[in-house]
Design a protein that fits this description.
Blueprint (H helix, E strand, L loop, with lengths): L2 H11 L3 E4 L17 H13 L5 E3 L3 H4 L2 H18 L4 E8 L3 H14 L4 E4 L5 H8 L5 E7 L5 H4 L3 E2 L2 E2 H9 L8 E5 L7 H7 L5 E3 L9 H8 L6 E5 L1 H4 L7 H22 L4
Parallel strand pairs: 1-2, 1-10, 2-3, 3-4, 4-5, 5-8, 8-9, 9-10
Antiparallel strand pairs: 6-7
Helix pairs in contact: 2-4, 2-12, 5-6
The structure holds the ligand O=c1ccn([C@@H]2O[C@H](COP(=O)(O)O)[C@@H](O)[C@H]2O)c(=O)[nH]1.
Length: 275
């Protein structure tokens, strides 16, 4: 999917919601456990109930890898279901990969070609030659960790290197990478006050913003400091939507949570004349 197609979807749906498919067998409703593939059954019900309210889905691969080959099959079924039934959805594999060049190329093939995701999260720590292999895939997006939502982000990301915070160096230096047009960045909703500085460096780049919901980040603050002329935000919520109910009404409850977030997003877009 091109970035313009993503912007068109956001405007059509009045939503920049990304739903995180962090599907945990310990948390899904008990009546699904005896299904042949409980993870896929849960995901399918969530997707069918929420697709009109969001523009992206983000399975975090840890939740699939944790169950071995069966978990990987659930991930394959989920991305195939999305691509076959809702091709307008922007799909993100949250895998936080990145390695020496030839290995990065294999990761890129796994997620962009084999599984056919639109985007993949990448750790920038190994630098240019670990990131550029991902950027050479046309209409595929590399989402680089810039300033993450967790407390440990302050261990390294905000430390100064030759006078500049490391996360700013990640943003600045990555702009010179070959294929940088395919870059997006992760910025945690819990770090919303940093977004003004971030927008000075990457004024229109898309930002994937996790941390609204279970981690306590504020949607309003993210919009206040981070929204750009092309909107440029995908705000993720996983647990806050997926586990709104542990009963048979889980999909309806997830839909209600997604609707609440979509309505707030619509308000934020309308008050800035971005629709
Ligand atoms: O900085 C980051 C980067 C990634 N994540 C991931 O996003 C979701 C958030 O889930 P919630 O349940 O909405 O808290 C999860 O997959 C994280 O691994 C992040 O939270 N922060």
């Amino acid at each position: 999917m091109t970035t313009q197609e993503l912007v068109d979807q956001i405007q059509k749906k009045k939503s920049f919601l990304c739903i995180g498919l962090d599907t945990d067998l310990d948390k899904i409703p008990s009546h699904l456990i005896n299904e042949e593939d409980p993870i896929f059954s849960f995901n399918k019900a969530i997707i069918d109930a929420t697709h009109h309210l969001c523009v992206a889905y983000k399975p975090n691969v840890a939740f699939y890898e944790a169950y071995g080959i069966e978990g990987w099959k659930s991930l394959e079924r989920t991305i195939k279901y999305l691509n076959d039934n809702y091709p307008e959805q922007f799909t993100i594999a949250d895998a936080k990969r990145g390695d020496i060049g030839n290995t990065s190329t294999r990761y890129a093939k796994a997620f962009f070609e084999n599984l056919n995701f639109d985007a993949l999260t990448i750790a920038p720590y190994m630098g240019r030659d670990s990131v550029e292999p991902f950027l050479s895939f046309e209409n595929k997006h590399t989402i680089l960790l810039a300033l993450t939502s967790n407390a440990g982000a302050f261990d390294f990301q905000t430390k100064k290197v030759e006078g500049t915070e490391l996360y700013k160096e990640v943003l600045k230096i990555s702009k010179s990478y070959k294929g940088a047009d395919n870059l997006m960045y992760v910025v945690g909703a819990t770090k919303a006050e940093y977004l003004t500085k971030i927008r000075e460096i990457v004024p229109t780049s898309f930002l994937l913003v996790p941390g609204v919901g279970a981690q306590g980040g504020s949607l309003e603050a993210v919009c206040k400091y981070g929204i750009s002329s092309n909107i440029g935000l995908l705000i993720n919520s996983s647990r806050g939507i997926l586990y709104a109910s542990s009963g048979k009404d889980f999909a309806e409850a997830a839909q209600e949570k997604a609707l609440q977030l979509q309505s707030k997003m619509q308000e934020e877009l309308e008050k800035r004349n971005l629709l």
